[in-house]
Design brief:
This protein has 12 helices and 12 strands. It is of the alpha/beta class and about 375 residues long. Helix 5 (about 95-100) links the parallel strand 2 and strand 3 (about 105-110). It has helices at about 10-15, 15-30, 35-50, 60-70, 95-100, 145-155, 210-220, 240-250, 255-270, 300-310, 340-345, 360-375; strands spanning about 55, 85-90, 105-110, 130-135, 160-165, 170-175, 175, 185-190, 200-205, 285, 295, 350. It binds pyridoxal-5'-phosphate (PLP).
Length: about 375
């Protein structure tokens, strides 16, 4: 049997006609940037997220960069004085840190909660200095970070909060959805995310209309009105093809989320009796959208080799924490600084969790994970 990590063709099969129809409309209109499809998707995503506003952008990465720029965490070439600092988890996709660096600020890393892999809120306050401007908690693998604590600390110290919701559109905590905790949240429509586009795309959701207006200017070179520039922005625009393709998928997102949670519960039951497997820990009040189903095992690399041999797709998210990345060597961190993140990097493995998986495929993965553990022990 073959079980890929992700099978986008299975999803497309059910959406082929509708997708081709909207793409054809755009081709006939020859209107490719912005326009009615983008506006319609923004409205739909805001409604879905329960936020007042949504601003379409070119990617989840640009969503974070534009948010930092709009919130004033941005160093122009003429700025002197101390460098702004932004606190982020060391265990996340690179973009979370890369956008801080590109905004001219210093990424200040924090370790993670060993159960959720999200930012360790207990260490947050010790990292705050007079230069700290913002915190970017990441809702990793589709589960919300501990936002009550993040928000309380941010409020106490006057910091902005940008949620990295790239893996977590629609995830909620105590009934509150991603985008309603911080000043804003960045979402990603990269094809492998739960709501994937036909290429790159992203969105910023927020309840702050003033911020939304500034983001609309910043995504288009800070221009308002045309050819008059109040701020320096960039080309962070969402194109019509992406917006149309995503609009076709959005009505199915909750159903797909249910299917992912169902798959997760099959894995949970299947692995329940195996002591060596640490299953995903979903905290009370959290509703995960399971962008990934990540287990932690003692012999991760041997298990991974076994699964690959058995035709089962799996992946390490992420093999090297950000504080140990070569490009950040100048920040002065070293191995051992964040032991929980380093442990996760060496022991975790993501298994296939996409909605269309069959019961047979899930059972096969469960059986081979167990076999692989025995083999590698
Ligand atoms: C995917 C991802 C991003 C970046 O999104 P893109 O749309 O690929 O630019 C940022 N942060 C996290 C945590 C992600 O998983």
């Amino acid at each position: 049997m073959n079980v890929p990590l992700l099978d986008l063709k299975a999803q497309y099969a059910g959406l082929r006609e509708e997708t081709q129809k909207v793409l054809n409309e755009i081709l006939e209109s020859q209107y490719f940037i912005g326009g009615p499809y983008v506006a319609k998707l923004e409205e739909a995503v805001a409604q879905y997220s329960g936020t007042a506003e949504a601003v379409g952008v070119s990617s989840g990465t640009d969503a974070l960069l534009a948010a930092l720029m709009a919130l004033g965490v941005y160093r122009s070439p003429l700025d002197m004085g101390p460098v702004d600092e932004v606190i982020i988890p060391t265990y996340t996709f690179f973009a979370t840190a890369g956008c801080v660096w590109r905004a001219g600020a210093r990424p200040v890393f924090a370790d993670i909660d060993p159960d959720t892999y999200n930012i360790d809120v207990d260490s947050l306050e010790s990292k705050i200095t007079p230069q700290t401007k913002a915190i970017i908690p990441v809702h990793l693998y589709g589960q919300c970070a501990d936002m009550e604590k993040v928000s309380a600390i941010a409020k106490k110290h006057g910091l902005a909060v940008i949620e990295d919701g790239a893996q977590a559109i629609g995830a909620s905590r105590n009934g509150v959805k991603v985008g309603n905790f911080g000043n804003c949240a960045g979402l990603s429509f990269f094809p492998s995310k739960n709501l994937g586009g036909l290429g790159d795309g992203g969105m910023i959701v927020t309840n702050d209309s003033t911020l939304a207006q500034k983001l609309r200017e910043i995504r288009n070179h800070g221009m308002e009105p045309k050819y008059y520039h109040k701020h320096v922005g960039g080309n962070f625009r969402l194109d019509a093809m992406q917006a149309a393709g995503i609009s076709v998928k959005l009505p199915h997102l909750d159903k797909w989320g249910e299917m992912r949670r169902r798959n997760a519960s099959v894995y949970d039951a299947g692995f329940g009796d195996v002591e060596e497997i640490k299953r995903p820990v979903i905290k009370n009040g959290n509703r995960s959208i399971y962008n990934q189903y990540v287990i932690s095992v003692p012999n991760r690399d041997a298990l991974m080799a076994h699964l690959k041999e058995k035709g089962i797709g799996c992946e390490i998210y992420y093999p090297l924490p950000l504080h140990m990345q070569e490009c950040f060597a100048k920040l002065g961190y070293r191995k051992g600084d964040f032991p929980r993140a380093e442990y996760a990097a060496e022991h975790t493995l993501a298994l296939p969790i996409y909605p269309e998986l069959t019961r047979e495929q899930l059972d096969y993965v469960i059986a081979e994970v167990k076999n692989g553990l025995v083999k590698g022990a």
